[in-house]
Amino acid sequence: MSSTDFELDDSYSDDDVSFDEVSSKISAKESLEKRRLIDDLLAQRRLERELKDFDYDLDDDDDFDDEED
Known about the structure:
- This protein has 69 residues and is mostly helical.
- The protein has helices at residues 14-52, 58-68.
- Helices cover 72% and strands 0% of the residues.
- It holds the Pfam family DUF8197.
């Protein structure tokens, strides 16, 4: 065995661990918020595409009502 002494770093505390936990929670929350925003945008685009598939115009419906009078 060598006679070299190793000194432990006592400056490491639980505060450092809690900071890492807090920052990871914030990061996870931000990631979740971004994911929800992306999901909302994709849902909106999907609905807009579905509406384009319909072959009618809402303004045309008003014209038909006027002719019936």
